[in-house]
């Protein structure tokens, strides 16, 4: 990282902020769109692909390393690089990212939050982890006091299609047909709307997505079985332009989101993630976090090009100030 003659505002053309990136082909395509790269170039930011088949220390020099690759080997490489190149900002630390690859541990940081003074309450639906023995699941769930319907989610988020295969369960007998390890989470009626909260450093962007509809007691009694459902928060399910009941569509209070974002950035040790949040149907200020994702599909976030460019520049300015003070 440059220290001499630092010029992030109006800096000379030959001086650039060099961001080395290690992303899957799919992530690169959705994130490094031509419009984003053009804007970044105008701001003095250049993106350089990292060759994962070569030693990381032989590449660069980099100001920032931006990465989202799975695997212990890659995590060890990045962690070693962080230790030997403290002048390079790694976004984000591999050990912090690992917490979000487990659907149980990812939400533990929300459980202890008390945001009642910020115009709302934020919690986590009641849930439990099932590690083995499908036949014992009905008894375990009964002992834990969880109520139907339940959402079944694979415990680990490993990037595979299977890790995103979610199911809704309506009866006790279906529980023994599940495949552990998994997380069982009580379904909370939320009016069919989910709030996807994108975090980019200090910046917060909220969009609405269509989600699963409310489930009535009548439906619960008449519809047995396991029902797989797709990921409900994709950009194709956008509800921002839909004609919705204002009580359902109203965004969570800004002060609540700012405090939640600040607390989770601190507790998770991450700068790039999104929160999937729902509002309990019939309530205005009772919210539940149901998922947290690292380095989500920012290409689906409105104005992501400007937000992310500003984040990179401000992050380096902040890091530089800490080094010289």
Describe the protein.
The chain has 325 residues and is α/β, with parallel strands linked by helices. It is 29% helix and 24% strand. A 5-stranded mixed β-sheet has the order 5-14-13-10-11. A 5-stranded antiparallel β-sheet has the order 6-9-7-8-12, with helices on one face. The protein has a 4-stranded parallel β-sheet with strand order 2-1-3-4.
| SS-derived structural category | alpha/beta
The count of DSSP E runs of length 2 or more, i.e. the number of strands, is 14
The N- and C-terminal alpha carbons lie at a distance of 16 Å
Number of helices: 10
As a percent range, the share of helical residues equals 25-40%
Q: Output the strand order for the largest sheet.
A: 5-14-13-10-11
- Element pattern in H and E: EHHEEHEHHEEHEEEEEHEHHEEH
Unreliable residue runs: 1-14
State Rg: 22 Å
Assembly type of the chains comes to single chain
The major beta sheet can be summarized as: 5 strands, mixed
Shape, principal axes of CA atoms: globular
| Averaged pLDDT | 88
Q: What is the strand content? A: 15-25%
Entry keywords:
5-stranded mixed sheet, disordered N terminus, 29% helix, 5-stranded antiparallel sheet, 325 residues
């Amino acid at each position: 990282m440059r220290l001499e003659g630092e010029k992030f505002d109006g800096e000379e053309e030959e001086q650039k902020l060099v961001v080395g990136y290690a992303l899957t082909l799919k992530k690169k395509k959705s994130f490094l769109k031509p419009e984003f790269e053009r804007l970044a170039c105008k701001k003095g930011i250049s993106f350089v692909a990292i060759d994962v088949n070569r030693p990381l220390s032989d590449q660069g020099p980099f100001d920032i390393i931006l990465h989202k690759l799975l695997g212990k080997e890659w995590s060890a490489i990045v962690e070693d690089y962080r230790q030997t190149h403290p002048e390079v900002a790694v976004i984000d630390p591999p050990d912090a990212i690992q917490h979000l690859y487990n659907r149980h541990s990812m939400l533990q940081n929300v459980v202890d939050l008390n945001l009642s003074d910020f115009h709302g309450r934020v919690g986590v639906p009641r849930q439990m982890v099932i590690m083995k023995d499908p036949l014992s699941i009905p008894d375990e769930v009964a002992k834990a006091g969880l109520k139907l319907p339940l959402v079944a989610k694979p415990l680990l988020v490993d990037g595979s299609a299977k890790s995103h295969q979610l199911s809704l369960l309506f009866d006790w007998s279906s529980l023994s047909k599940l495949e552990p390890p998994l997380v069982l989470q009580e379904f909370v009626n939320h009016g069919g709307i989910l709030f996807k909260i994108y975090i980019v450093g200090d910046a917060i962007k909220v969009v609405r997505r269509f989600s699963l509809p409310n489930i009535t007691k009548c439906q619960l009694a008449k519809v047995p079985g396991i029902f797989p459902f797709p990921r409900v928060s994709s950009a194709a399910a956008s509800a921002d332009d839909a004609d919705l009941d204002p009580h359902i569509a109203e965004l969570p209070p800004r002060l609540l989101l700012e405090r939640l974002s600040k607390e989770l950035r601190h507790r998770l040790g991450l700068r790039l993630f999104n929160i999937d949040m729902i509002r309990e149907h019939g309530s205005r200020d009772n919210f539940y976090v149901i998922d947290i994702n690292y380095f989500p599909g920012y290409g689906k976030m409105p104005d992501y090009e400007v937000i992310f460019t500003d984040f990179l520049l401000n992050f380096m300015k902040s890091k530089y100030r800490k080094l010289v003070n």
